[in-house]
What does this fold into?
Amino acid sequence: MKTQKLFSALLMLFVLASTAQELKSPNGLLKAHFSLDEAGRPTYDLQYKSKEVIKSSHLGFEIKDTEPLLEGFELVSSTSSSYDQTWEPVWGEESQIRNNYNELAVTLHQVSTDRSLTIRFRMFDTGLGFRYEFPIQDKLGSFVITKERTEFALTGDHTAIWIPGDYDTQEYDYTTSKLSEIEAKFDEAYTGNASQEQFSKTAVQTALMLKADNGLYINLHEAATVNYPTMHLDLDPKTFTFESWLTPGAKGNKAYMIAPQNTPWRTIIVSDDARDILASRMTYNLNEPSVIEDTSWIRPMKYIGVWWEMITGKSSWSYTDELSAINLDTVDYSKTTPNGTHGATNENVRRYIDFAADNGIDGVLVEGWNTGWEDWFGKSKDYVFDFVTPYPDFDVKALNEYAHQRGVELIMHHETSGSTRNYERFMDEAYQFMNDHGYHAVKSGYVGDIIPRGEKHYSQYINNHYLYAIQKAADYKIMVNAHEAVRPTGLARTYPNMVANESARGTEYQAFGGSHPNHTTILPFTRQIGGPMDYTPGIFEMDMTKLNPNNHTQIPTTIGNQLGLYLVMYSPLQMAADLPENYERFADAFEFIKEVGIDWQQSVYLEAEPGAYLTIARQEKGTGKWFAGNNNGYHSRTATVDCSFLEKGKKYTATIYRDADDANYKDNPQAYVIEEKTVSSKTKLKIFTAAGGGFGISFEEQ
Ligand code: NOJ
Ligand code: CA
It folds into this structure.
């Protein structure tokens, strides 16, 4: 008996030794292992500076109507390689991105079923990415994944900054809790409508930000999600192990696959310094290079919009209040009575165009310009919008001509009301309409349940729709900013016309009742890992009753905080979201929004703690000008701006737009100070930041 045990232990060691593979990061600080366990299960782990990040974790799938791809594998081959190249993004937080990794690809064969798969690992200095690849083969042609079983076994009860799993929205405030508390807090956090048999109350969304008691920051997300459902993470609270939890399609299946096909990359970014999480470009590097050859038409833009006035309830998207159900074929809007609150009128749009032209703002978004808003929530929802028919008080041709005359362009708006098939059938016409009238950027939206057949916002089929819209838009040289679409996974490297997304709780929720005051100190660690967010910053009037007497929200932010957002919340499409009249009231603070860059040569992450504070300095592409910004969480604090990024030996005037000493997000949000200081690369500026506050700084060489 004893000999037998010894023998099987030795045999196990031999098997492990024969399959165990090690992969190190280029700087040697990260180490992963791959092996097949005694049952032939693919297994990996990850260490950072000799600390365990991911304990031994299994990999695999359950497949519909056939044996799972979980165990009984043998190693066929393994190949190692290295890569080190630098590429230039069309827009970004820096002008050059180094893509440097070591790779290990293991090809496995499941003996009993004669099926094969390759798992490709790429180790960067900032973390690990891996994906599954299904090569062409006889026994695995087209198949349906019913469950992906990728594990991330964590080492303990880490602090997690999470939003609940939801197949349709990420527009949540974050909860910060121990992993062991997620289940108990899930119901309080969850506001969606997924049926419980479909859902797990321990599932959270990615990018998930974790902090371990040993000081490690760990970020779990995915890269290059193409033709595959979005991954959530489901926790086993007993073992602190997350398992991938894919968004189901209309029939409950997860992914429909046809070999050869790859899954997205699963990513683990890790460091003992939170700033490294922000500086990591792993997610972009795991995506393919741009497929758009001529990118000259893709330009970062600052914009304002006939938008906040609708969001706050000051004006309306709709033209009339008379219609409860419309039929686009028969309705004659000119015979209806205007409601008098329509925002997208010729007169109002001209006012915004003038304001943009006078202040050097590139674009004006106009929502509610097209017919159909009256019945958006009505029965004919699937045929509400055709994306080409303006309301009678919006003259598409004249307004575009006027805008162009004044050196400004209009930004198109396509609200799809969740009807992706309807959008697809009008898409060519809608994009051609944009080309004909001189629009070259569109904000699209997917509010409401996906219709008509019960798909989810993050299922494979709908993820394919978002990409189809981006690809089609590229054919028409159109930049896209999609709201309510899937959270990005670095695809903007491949399709740089995908200039922004919403896909998180943006400024609109400030008008709907407010977000947590520390929300924007979290988003760069979560939502922004996959790409820029159209957060729509720049609100100067926090008392919503001033815009709409029926809206009693007091927005939990300060003017200093709003200015800091232009640095903290990177986006090549950056809005100044408040109304022109509010900017006119605070013209000196608005100077910062006018001046601040939107495309960057380099970025320096000065201070970072998710949920608490963020200070970032960036150098503008082209001009070489430096700016810095900060967002602060719940507690007032003194931030330090170490100016060593400035050129040595030179003097600069730093214009600091900061919270006044008595400012705070609750009852004194508009108190700010603008001060000038002479600084050099040796200066360490100490700047007060209020609760829910922040600042913006521009540096001018003397
Ligand atoms: C929700 C979007 O987030 C918002 O920006 C837009 O104005 C409305 N949908 C209407 O499309
Ligand atoms: Ca939204």
Notes: Residues 212 and 584 are 46 Å apart (CA to CA). The domain at 299-503 is CATH 3.20.20.70 (TIM Barrel).
